[in-house]
Amino acid sequence: MSLPPRLLDPAALCSPVGGCGVSLAGVKRPALVSRRHAGRLGLSLGLLLTTATAQGYARPDETSVLPRASASAQPTQARVKELMQEARDLYDAALKHRRREHPERITLTQRAISTALRAIELDPTQVANRVTAAEWMSRPELGEASVKRALVELQEARKHDPLAAQDYDIAGALALCYSHLGRFADAIAEYDRALLRLSGEPDFPQWRKRQQQATLLSNSAEAMMALGRLDEAIRRYSEADQLDGSDNNALHALGLAVAYDRDGQMQKSREALQRSLAADPALRMYQSDEVFFAPEGDRHYYDGLIAEALDNRDDAMRSFKEFLAELPQSRYAERARFHLEELRKLPGIATAELIHANIMMAPPHFGTEDSTGPRHHRPEEDIQRVTRLRQIELRYCYAKALRKAPKLGGDLALDLVLNRDGAVLMVQPLENTLSEKPSNTSLDRVLAGSTPPAGAAADLLHCVVSTVQRWRFSSADEGNVTQDEVALPMRFQAR
Q1: pLDDT (tens digit per residue) in 383-428
Q2: pTM of the predicted model over 0.85
Q3: pLDDT band at 474 (very low <50, low <70, confident <90, very high)
Protein backbone atom coordinates (compact mmCIF):
# COMPACT_ATOMS: atom_id res chain seq x y z
CA MET A 1 0.00 0.00 0.00
CA SER A 2 1.18 3.51 -0.59
CA LEU A 3 0.24 7.08 0.35
CA PRO A 4 1.57 10.28 -1.13
CA PRO A 5 3.59 12.07 1.55
CA ARG A 6 2.49 15.61 2.20
CA LEU A 7 3.24 18.20 4.76
CA LEU A 8 -0.40 18.62 5.57
CA ASP A 9 -2.72 17.86 8.42
CA PRO A 10 -2.34 14.31 9.75
CA ALA A 11 -5.99 13.75 8.90
CA ALA A 12 -5.15 14.30 5.28
CA LEU A 13 -2.46 11.66 5.31
CA CYS A 14 -3.04 8.05 4.41
CA SER A 15 -0.69 5.27 5.17
CA PRO A 16 -1.62 2.05 3.44
CA VAL A 17 0.12 -0.68 1.64
CA GLY A 18 0.77 -0.50 -2.07
CA GLY A 19 1.41 2.14 -4.62
CA CYS A 20 0.71 5.66 -5.63
CA GLY A 21 -2.01 7.76 -4.35
CA VAL A 22 -4.52 10.45 -5.06
CA SER A 23 -4.68 14.05 -3.96
CA LEU A 24 -7.59 15.22 -1.90
CA ALA A 25 -8.51 18.75 -2.85
CA GLY A 26 -10.00 20.97 -0.26
CA VAL A 27 -7.75 20.17 2.71
CA LYS A 28 -6.42 23.44 3.99
CA ARG A 29 -2.84 23.70 5.11
CA PRO A 30 -2.20 25.17 8.57
CA ALA A 31 -0.94 28.72 8.47
CA LEU A 32 2.35 27.77 10.07
CA VAL A 33 3.32 25.70 7.03
CA SER A 34 5.12 27.48 4.24
CA ARG A 35 3.24 27.22 0.99
CA ARG A 36 6.34 26.55 -1.01
CA HIS A 37 6.67 23.21 0.72
CA ALA A 38 3.44 21.51 -0.19
CA GLY A 39 4.77 17.98 0.25
CA ARG A 40 3.23 15.17 -1.71
CA LEU A 41 4.18 11.71 -0.72
CA GLY A 42 2.61 8.47 0.00
CA LEU A 43 3.30 5.36 1.88
CA SER A 44 4.10 1.99 0.68
CA LEU A 45 2.66 -0.81 2.60
CA GLY A 46 1.31 -2.10 -0.49
CA LEU A 47 -1.07 0.81 -0.71
CA LEU A 48 -0.64 4.44 -1.23
CA LEU A 49 -2.84 7.38 -0.53
CA THR A 50 -2.38 10.93 -1.81
CA THR A 51 -3.49 13.57 0.52
CA ALA A 52 -2.41 16.89 -0.89
CA THR A 53 -5.19 19.17 -1.91
CA ALA A 54 -5.58 21.57 -4.70
CA GLN A 55 -5.93 24.38 -2.17
CA GLY A 56 -2.81 23.13 -0.50
CA TYR A 57 -0.58 23.88 -3.41
CA ALA A 58 1.40 27.04 -3.44
CA ARG A 59 -0.06 29.91 -5.36
CA PRO A 60 1.63 30.73 -8.66
CA ASP A 61 2.90 34.13 -7.58
CA GLU A 62 4.55 32.55 -4.54
CA THR A 63 6.33 29.71 -6.27
CA SER A 64 7.58 31.18 -9.50
CA VAL A 65 11.35 31.24 -9.65
CA LEU A 66 11.22 34.22 -12.00
CA PRO A 67 10.97 37.88 -10.99
CA ARG A 68 7.50 39.26 -10.41
CA ALA A 69 5.74 40.03 -13.65
CA SER A 70 5.65 43.56 -14.98
CA ALA A 71 2.48 45.63 -14.96
CA SER A 72 1.85 44.76 -18.60
CA ALA A 73 1.70 41.09 -17.68
CA GLN A 74 -0.83 41.53 -14.89
CA PRO A 75 -3.89 40.67 -17.03
CA THR A 76 -2.29 37.35 -17.99
CA GLN A 77 -1.41 36.57 -14.37
CA ALA A 78 -4.97 37.36 -13.29
CA ARG A 79 -6.33 35.00 -15.94
CA VAL A 80 -3.92 32.26 -14.80
CA LYS A 81 -5.16 32.59 -11.22
CA GLU A 82 -8.76 32.57 -12.41
CA LEU A 83 -8.27 29.38 -14.41
CA MET A 84 -6.47 27.60 -11.57
CA GLN A 85 -9.23 28.50 -9.15
CA GLU A 86 -11.78 27.13 -11.62
CA ALA A 87 -9.71 23.95 -11.92
CA ARG A 88 -9.55 23.53 -8.13
CA ASP A 89 -13.30 24.01 -7.85
CA LEU A 90 -13.86 21.30 -10.44
CA TYR A 91 -11.52 18.95 -8.63
CA ASP A 92 -13.24 19.65 -5.30
CA ALA A 93 -16.54 18.75 -6.96
CA ALA A 94 -15.00 15.54 -8.33
CA LEU A 95 -13.91 14.39 -4.88
CA LYS A 96 -17.46 14.68 -3.55
CA HIS A 97 -18.02 11.40 -5.37
CA ARG A 98 -16.28 9.11 -2.92
CA ARG A 99 -15.83 6.14 -5.26
CA ARG A 100 -12.82 6.84 -7.45
CA GLU A 101 -14.23 4.94 -10.46
CA HIS A 102 -17.46 7.00 -10.38
CA PRO A 103 -18.05 8.30 -13.96
CA GLU A 104 -18.87 11.83 -12.82
CA ARG A 105 -15.76 11.95 -10.65
CA ILE A 106 -13.58 10.96 -13.60
CA THR A 107 -15.30 13.48 -15.89
CA LEU A 108 -14.87 16.34 -13.42
CA THR A 109 -11.24 15.40 -12.79
CA GLN A 110 -10.53 15.48 -16.52
CA ARG A 111 -12.19 18.89 -16.81
CA ALA A 112 -10.07 20.14 -13.91
CA ILE A 113 -6.92 18.92 -15.67
CA SER A 114 -7.91 20.55 -18.97
CA THR A 115 -8.58 23.86 -17.22
CA ALA A 116 -5.24 23.72 -15.39
CA LEU A 117 -3.42 23.00 -18.66
CA ARG A 118 -4.92 26.17 -20.16
CA ALA A 119 -3.42 28.11 -17.25
CA ILE A 120 -0.05 26.45 -17.83
CA GLU A 121 -0.15 27.39 -21.52
CA LEU A 122 -0.60 31.04 -20.52
CA ASP A 123 2.36 30.91 -18.11
CA PRO A 124 4.58 27.80 -18.32
CA THR A 125 6.90 29.13 -15.59
CA GLN A 126 4.48 28.57 -12.72
CA VAL A 127 5.89 25.38 -11.24
CA ALA A 128 3.17 24.85 -8.63
CA ASN A 129 0.43 24.87 -11.29
CA ARG A 130 2.25 22.27 -13.33
CA VAL A 131 2.72 20.05 -10.26
CA THR A 132 -0.95 20.40 -9.35
CA ALA A 133 -2.09 19.35 -12.82
CA ALA A 134 0.38 16.44 -12.84
CA GLU A 135 -0.86 15.19 -9.51
CA TRP A 136 -4.41 15.06 -10.83
CA MET A 137 -3.24 13.33 -14.00
CA SER A 138 -1.45 10.64 -11.99
CA ARG A 139 -4.66 9.19 -10.59
CA PRO A 140 -4.60 5.49 -11.49
CA GLU A 141 -8.25 5.42 -12.52
CA LEU A 142 -7.44 7.78 -15.41
CA GLY A 143 -5.28 5.14 -17.06
CA GLU A 144 -1.64 4.63 -17.93
CA ALA A 145 -1.54 7.32 -20.63
CA SER A 146 -2.59 9.94 -18.12
CA VAL A 147 0.06 8.81 -15.62
CA LYS A 148 2.72 9.04 -18.35
CA ARG A 149 1.57 12.57 -19.18
CA ALA A 150 1.87 13.44 -15.48
CA LEU A 151 5.45 12.16 -15.58
CA VAL A 152 6.28 14.52 -18.46
CA GLU A 153 4.71 17.49 -16.66
CA LEU A 154 6.67 16.76 -13.47
CA GLN A 155 9.95 16.46 -15.35
CA GLU A 156 9.19 19.79 -17.02
CA ALA A 157 8.36 21.29 -13.61
CA ARG A 158 11.77 20.26 -12.32
CA LYS A 159 13.41 22.08 -15.27
CA HIS A 160 11.55 25.27 -14.32
CA ASP A 161 12.53 24.95 -10.66
CA PRO A 162 16.31 25.67 -10.62
CA LEU A 163 16.22 26.78 -6.97
CA ALA A 164 14.53 23.50 -5.96
CA ALA A 165 11.74 25.35 -4.16
CA GLN A 166 9.28 22.62 -5.17
CA ASP A 167 11.70 19.70 -5.18
CA TYR A 168 10.06 17.84 -2.29
CA ASP A 169 6.66 18.03 -3.99
CA ILE A 170 8.05 17.02 -7.35
CA ALA A 171 10.06 14.09 -5.97
CA GLY A 172 7.06 12.69 -4.08
CA ALA A 173 4.75 13.03 -7.09
CA LEU A 174 7.33 11.47 -9.44
CA ALA A 175 7.80 8.53 -7.07
CA LEU A 176 4.07 7.84 -7.12
CA CYS A 177 3.97 7.99 -10.93
CA TYR A 178 6.93 5.64 -11.27
CA SER A 179 5.33 3.24 -8.84
CA HIS A 180 2.08 3.26 -10.83
CA LEU A 181 4.07 2.46 -13.96
CA GLY A 182 6.00 -0.39 -12.35
CA ARG A 183 9.30 1.51 -12.47
CA PHE A 184 10.11 0.67 -8.87
CA ALA A 185 13.85 1.45 -8.93
CA ASP A 186 13.07 4.97 -10.21
CA ALA A 187 10.37 5.31 -7.55
CA ILE A 188 12.83 4.40 -4.78
CA ALA A 189 15.31 6.98 -6.07
CA GLU A 190 12.68 9.73 -5.90
CA TYR A 191 11.48 8.62 -2.44
CA ASP A 192 15.09 8.81 -1.24
CA ARG A 193 15.43 12.25 -2.80
CA ALA A 194 12.31 13.40 -0.96
CA LEU A 195 13.66 11.95 2.30
CA LEU A 196 16.88 13.89 1.82
CA ARG A 197 15.01 17.13 1.14
CA LEU A 198 12.82 16.54 4.18
CA SER A 199 15.78 15.95 6.48
CA GLY A 200 17.10 19.44 5.74
CA GLU A 201 13.75 21.18 6.18
CA PRO A 202 13.88 23.39 9.31
CA ASP A 203 10.38 24.87 9.08
CA PHE A 204 8.18 21.97 10.25
CA PRO A 205 7.40 20.49 13.65
CA GLN A 206 9.18 17.26 14.41
CA TRP A 207 5.96 15.24 14.76
CA ARG A 208 4.87 16.29 11.29
CA LYS A 209 8.27 15.54 9.84
CA ARG A 210 8.19 12.06 11.43
CA GLN A 211 4.85 11.30 9.78
CA GLN A 212 6.19 12.34 6.41
CA GLN A 213 9.34 10.29 6.89
CA ALA A 214 7.26 7.27 7.84
CA THR A 215 5.12 7.63 4.74
CA LEU A 216 8.17 7.92 2.48
CA LEU A 217 9.86 4.96 4.14
CA SER A 218 6.74 2.82 3.88
CA ASN A 219 6.15 3.71 0.24
CA SER A 220 9.72 2.99 -0.69
CA ALA A 221 9.52 -0.30 1.24
CA GLU A 222 6.62 -1.33 -0.95
CA ALA A 223 8.68 -0.62 -4.06
CA MET A 224 11.59 -2.61 -2.60
CA MET A 225 9.27 -5.53 -1.87
CA ALA A 226 8.10 -5.44 -5.50
CA LEU A 227 11.77 -5.83 -6.52
CA GLY A 228 12.32 -8.73 -4.12
CA ARG A 229 14.49 -6.70 -1.75
CA LEU A 230 12.71 -8.03 1.33
CA ASP A 231 15.47 -7.33 3.88
CA GLU A 232 15.48 -3.65 2.97
CA ALA A 233 11.68 -3.54 2.80
CA ILE A 234 11.39 -5.01 6.30
CA ARG A 235 13.92 -2.50 7.65
CA ARG A 236 12.08 0.47 6.17
CA TYR A 237 8.63 -0.76 7.19
CA SER A 238 9.96 -1.27 10.73
CA GLU A 239 11.36 2.26 10.81
CA ALA A 240 8.04 3.66 9.59
CA ASP A 241 6.18 1.56 12.16
CA GLN A 242 8.29 3.05 14.95
CA LEU A 243 8.27 6.64 13.67
CA ASP A 244 4.56 7.22 13.09
CA GLY A 245 2.16 7.46 16.02
CA SER A 246 -0.85 8.43 13.87
CA ASP A 247 -3.58 6.23 12.39
CA ASN A 248 -1.23 5.61 9.49
CA ASN A 249 0.64 3.27 11.79
CA ALA A 250 -1.92 0.55 11.08
CA LEU A 251 -0.87 0.64 7.43
CA HIS A 252 2.84 0.59 8.17
CA ALA A 253 2.33 -2.45 10.39
CA LEU A 254 0.23 -4.14 7.73
CA GLY A 255 2.92 -3.65 5.10
CA LEU A 256 5.46 -5.02 7.55
CA ALA A 257 3.26 -8.08 8.13
CA VAL A 258 3.14 -8.80 4.39
CA ALA A 259 6.90 -8.37 4.01
CA TYR A 260 7.59 -10.70 6.96
CA ASP A 261 5.16 -13.26 5.56
CA ARG A 262 6.79 -13.22 2.14
CA ASP A 263 10.15 -13.68 3.84
CA GLY A 264 8.86 -16.77 5.64
CA GLN A 265 8.92 -15.15 9.09
CA MET A 266 5.46 -16.31 10.07
CA GLN A 267 5.49 -15.41 13.77
CA LYS A 268 6.73 -11.88 13.17
CA SER A 269 4.15 -11.50 10.41
CA ARG A 270 1.33 -12.49 12.76
CA GLU A 271 2.58 -10.10 15.44
CA ALA A 272 2.70 -7.17 13.00
CA LEU A 273 -0.72 -8.06 11.60
CA GLN A 274 -2.24 -8.15 15.09
CA ARG A 275 -0.79 -4.69 15.81
CA SER A 276 -2.33 -3.40 12.60
CA LEU A 277 -5.76 -4.87 13.37
CA ALA A 278 -5.63 -3.59 16.94
CA ALA A 279 -4.89 -0.06 15.70
CA ASP A 280 -7.60 -0.17 13.02
CA PRO A 281 -10.00 -3.07 13.76
CA ALA A 282 -12.55 -1.87 11.21
CA LEU A 283 -9.86 -1.64 8.50
CA ARG A 284 -11.10 1.87 7.69
CA MET A 285 -7.80 3.17 6.36
CA TYR A 286 -7.04 -0.01 4.49
CA GLN A 287 -10.43 0.09 2.77
CA SER A 288 -10.23 3.77 1.90
CA ASP A 289 -10.97 4.47 -1.73
CA GLU A 290 -7.86 6.63 -1.88
CA VAL A 291 -5.53 3.75 -1.11
CA PHE A 292 -3.95 1.82 -3.94
CA PHE A 293 -1.40 -0.94 -4.46
CA ALA A 294 1.59 -1.28 -6.72
CA PRO A 295 1.18 -3.63 -8.41
CA GLU A 296 -2.59 -3.24 -8.04
CA GLY A 297 -3.15 -7.01 -7.86
CA ASP A 298 -1.17 -7.12 -4.62
CA ARG A 299 -4.35 -6.04 -2.87
CA HIS A 300 -5.60 -9.64 -3.07
CA TYR A 301 -2.54 -10.88 -1.16
CA TYR A 302 -3.22 -8.39 1.63
CA ASP A 303 -6.90 -9.39 1.65
CA GLY A 304 -5.95 -13.04 1.92
CA LEU A 305 -3.53 -12.51 4.79
CA ILE A 306 -6.09 -10.43 6.70
CA ALA A 307 -8.90 -12.95 6.15
CA GLU A 308 -6.60 -15.78 7.24
CA ALA A 309 -5.77 -13.90 10.46
CA LEU A 310 -9.49 -13.38 11.11
CA ASP A 311 -10.11 -17.10 10.66
CA ASN A 312 -12.19 -16.54 7.53
CA ARG A 313 -10.99 -19.55 5.54
CA ASP A 314 -13.25 -19.15 2.50
CA ASP A 315 -12.45 -15.46 1.95
CA ALA A 316 -8.75 -16.11 2.45
CA MET A 317 -8.69 -18.86 -0.16
CA ARG A 318 -10.69 -16.74 -2.60
CA SER A 319 -8.29 -13.80 -2.21
CA PHE A 320 -5.12 -15.85 -2.72
CA LYS A 321 -6.67 -17.45 -5.82
CA GLU A 322 -7.49 -13.98 -7.19
CA PHE A 323 -3.91 -12.90 -6.53
CA LEU A 324 -2.58 -15.86 -8.53
CA ALA A 325 -5.07 -15.24 -11.34
CA GLU A 326 -4.15 -11.54 -11.64
CA LEU A 327 -0.39 -11.82 -10.99
CA PRO A 328 0.58 -15.37 -12.04
CA GLN A 329 4.21 -14.34 -12.66
CA SER A 330 4.63 -12.60 -9.31
CA ARG A 331 7.79 -13.51 -7.40
CA TYR A 332 5.39 -14.18 -4.49
CA ALA A 333 3.09 -16.57 -6.35
CA GLU A 334 4.67 -19.59 -4.67
CA ARG A 335 4.06 -18.03 -1.27
CA ALA A 336 0.38 -17.56 -2.15
CA ARG A 337 0.18 -21.24 -3.15
CA PHE A 338 1.68 -22.15 0.23
CA HIS A 339 -1.12 -20.27 1.98
CA LEU A 340 -3.72 -22.04 -0.16
CA GLU A 341 -2.31 -25.44 0.74
CA GLU A 342 -2.31 -24.61 4.44
CA LEU A 343 -5.89 -23.33 4.25
CA ARG A 344 -7.04 -26.50 2.47
CA LYS A 345 -5.80 -28.53 5.43
CA LEU A 346 -8.15 -26.70 7.79
CA PRO A 347 -11.59 -28.19 8.37
CA GLY A 348 -14.31 -26.24 6.65
CA ILE A 349 -17.78 -25.51 7.95
CA ALA A 350 -20.34 -27.91 6.49
CA THR A 351 -23.73 -26.70 5.24
CA ALA A 352 -25.46 -28.74 7.94
CA GLU A 353 -23.44 -26.90 10.60
CA LEU A 354 -24.46 -23.51 9.18
CA ILE A 355 -28.13 -24.55 9.21
CA HIS A 356 -27.76 -25.70 12.80
CA ALA A 357 -26.20 -22.36 13.80
CA ASN A 358 -29.47 -20.42 13.83
CA ILE A 359 -29.50 -16.66 14.43
CA MET A 360 -32.70 -14.61 14.78
CA MET A 361 -32.35 -10.91 13.96
CA ALA A 362 -34.67 -8.30 15.44
CA PRO A 363 -35.34 -4.95 13.68
CA PRO A 364 -32.56 -2.39 14.14
CA HIS A 365 -32.99 0.49 16.57
CA PHE A 366 -31.62 3.95 15.76
CA GLY A 367 -30.22 6.20 18.45
CA THR A 368 -32.27 9.13 19.73
CA GLU A 369 -30.48 12.42 19.31
CA ASP A 370 -33.09 14.78 20.76
CA SER A 371 -36.58 14.97 22.23
CA THR A 372 -38.22 14.65 18.82
CA GLY A 373 -37.44 10.95 18.71
CA PRO A 374 -35.19 8.75 16.58
CA ARG A 375 -33.22 10.58 13.96
CA HIS A 376 -31.25 8.83 11.27
CA HIS A 377 -29.89 9.55 7.83
CA ARG A 378 -30.27 6.28 5.97
CA PRO A 379 -33.33 4.05 5.63
CA GLU A 380 -33.97 1.24 8.08
CA GLU A 381 -34.53 -1.02 5.05
CA ASP A 382 -30.87 -0.60 4.10
CA ILE A 383 -29.71 -1.74 7.53
CA GLN A 384 -31.97 -4.78 7.31
CA ARG A 385 -30.86 -5.56 3.76
CA VAL A 386 -27.16 -5.58 4.67
CA THR A 387 -27.66 -7.63 7.84
CA ARG A 388 -29.81 -10.13 5.91
CA LEU A 389 -27.27 -10.51 3.10
CA ARG A 390 -24.32 -10.89 5.46
CA GLN A 391 -25.95 -12.92 8.22
CA ILE A 392 -24.22 -16.00 6.81
CA GLU A 393 -20.93 -14.54 8.09
CA LEU A 394 -22.34 -14.44 11.63
CA ARG A 395 -23.63 -17.99 11.29
CA TYR A 396 -20.12 -19.02 10.28
CA CYS A 397 -18.86 -17.54 13.58
CA TYR A 398 -21.60 -19.31 15.52
CA ALA A 399 -20.98 -22.66 13.80
CA LYS A 400 -17.29 -22.56 14.76
CA ALA A 401 -18.16 -21.72 18.36
CA LEU A 402 -20.71 -24.55 18.55
CA ARG A 403 -17.95 -27.03 17.77
CA LYS A 404 -16.39 -26.09 21.11
CA ALA A 405 -19.62 -25.59 23.06
CA PRO A 406 -22.70 -27.35 21.56
CA LYS A 407 -25.06 -25.63 24.03
CA LEU A 408 -23.77 -22.10 23.42
CA GLY A 409 -26.49 -19.49 22.94
CA GLY A 410 -28.01 -16.27 24.20
CA ASP A 411 -28.81 -12.72 23.20
CA LEU A 412 -26.48 -10.12 21.79
CA ALA A 413 -27.24 -6.51 20.89
CA LEU A 414 -24.49 -4.57 19.11
CA ASP A 415 -24.15 -0.80 19.09
CA LEU A 416 -22.84 0.39 15.68
CA VAL A 417 -21.63 3.87 14.74
CA LEU A 418 -21.71 4.48 10.97
CA ASN A 419 -19.97 7.34 9.17
CA ARG A 420 -21.37 9.33 6.27
CA ASP A 421 -20.11 6.78 3.73
CA GLY A 422 -21.67 3.83 5.56
CA ALA A 423 -18.45 2.40 7.02
CA VAL A 424 -18.62 1.04 10.56
CA LEU A 425 -16.58 3.29 12.84
CA MET A 426 -17.27 1.42 16.08
CA VAL A 427 -18.90 -1.77 17.35
CA GLN A 428 -19.56 -2.58 20.99
CA PRO A 429 -22.00 -4.89 22.83
CA LEU A 430 -25.03 -3.29 24.47
CA GLU A 431 -26.58 -6.53 25.67
CA ASN A 432 -24.69 -9.76 26.04
CA THR A 433 -26.08 -12.95 27.56
CA LEU A 434 -23.98 -15.35 25.48
CA SER A 435 -23.29 -18.40 27.59
CA GLU A 436 -22.56 -22.09 27.24
CA LYS A 437 -25.61 -22.58 29.44
CA PRO A 438 -28.01 -20.00 28.03
CA SER A 439 -31.02 -18.83 29.97
CA ASN A 440 -34.34 -17.66 28.57
CA THR A 441 -33.77 -13.96 28.23
CA SER A 442 -35.82 -11.35 26.45
CA LEU A 443 -34.34 -9.96 23.26
CA ASP A 444 -35.55 -6.51 24.22
CA ARG A 445 -33.90 -6.47 27.63
CA VAL A 446 -30.56 -4.73 27.98
CA LEU A 447 -28.42 -6.13 30.74
CA ALA A 448 -26.33 -3.43 32.29
CA GLY A 449 -23.11 -4.63 33.80
CA SER A 450 -23.42 -8.25 32.63
CA THR A 451 -20.32 -10.35 33.15
CA PRO A 452 -18.07 -10.83 30.13
CA PRO A 453 -18.40 -14.19 28.37
CA ALA A 454 -15.71 -16.78 28.69
CA GLY A 455 -14.36 -19.57 26.50
CA ALA A 456 -16.40 -20.30 23.40
CA ALA A 457 -18.75 -17.40 24.20
CA ALA A 458 -15.85 -14.96 24.18
CA ASP A 459 -14.60 -16.40 20.87
CA LEU A 460 -18.07 -15.98 19.37
CA LEU A 461 -18.31 -12.37 20.54
CA HIS A 462 -14.88 -11.54 19.10
CA CYS A 463 -15.70 -13.17 15.78
CA VAL A 464 -19.06 -11.37 15.49
CA VAL A 465 -17.63 -7.95 16.37
CA SER A 466 -14.68 -8.37 13.95
CA THR A 467 -17.07 -9.43 11.19
CA VAL A 468 -19.54 -6.57 11.64
CA GLN A 469 -16.69 -4.03 11.70
CA ARG A 470 -16.02 -4.90 8.05
CA TRP A 471 -19.60 -4.39 6.90
CA ARG A 472 -20.57 -1.47 4.68
CA PHE A 473 -23.97 0.22 4.64
CA SER A 474 -25.41 2.85 2.29
CA SER A 475 -24.13 6.41 2.20
CA ALA A 476 -26.15 9.10 3.96
CA ASP A 477 -27.73 11.69 1.70
CA GLU A 478 -28.91 14.38 4.06
CA GLY A 479 -27.22 17.62 5.05
CA ASN A 480 -24.08 17.69 7.10
CA VAL A 481 -24.33 14.11 8.32
CA THR A 482 -21.42 12.91 10.35
CA GLN A 483 -22.62 9.60 11.71
CA ASP A 484 -25.55 7.35 12.61
CA GLU A 485 -25.87 5.14 15.67
CA VAL A 486 -27.86 1.94 15.38
CA ALA A 487 -28.42 -1.11 17.61
CA LEU A 488 -28.58 -4.59 16.07
CA PRO A 489 -30.31 -7.12 18.39
CA MET A 490 -29.89 -10.82 17.66
CA ARG A 491 -30.49 -14.16 19.35
CA PHE A 492 -28.17 -17.16 18.98
CA GLN A 493 -30.13 -20.37 19.38
CA ALA A 494 -28.93 -23.61 17.80
CA ARG A 495 -31.65 -25.63 16.04
Answers
A1: 888 888 888 889 889 998 999 899 999 999 999 998 888 888 899 9
A2: no
A3: confident
- Among 191, 199, 186, residue whose Cα is nearest residue 170: 191
Strand partners, 2: 48, 292
Distance CA 171, CA 192 (A): 9
Residue 361: alpha-carbon gap to chain centroid: 31
As beta bridge partners, residue 409 has 435
What are the phi and psi torsion angles at 419 (to 5°)?
Answer: -85, 180
| Domains parsed from the chain with CATH numbers | 10-279 (1.25.40.10), 307-344 (no CATH), 351-492 (no CATH)
Bond preceding residue 30 cis, omega within 30 of 0: no
pLDDT digits (tens, 9 = 90+) for 248-273: 888 999 999 999 999 999 889 999 99
| β-bridge pairing 483-492 and 365-366 | antiparallel
Q: Is 146 exposed, middle or buried (0-12, 13-18, 19+ CB in 10 A)?
A: buried
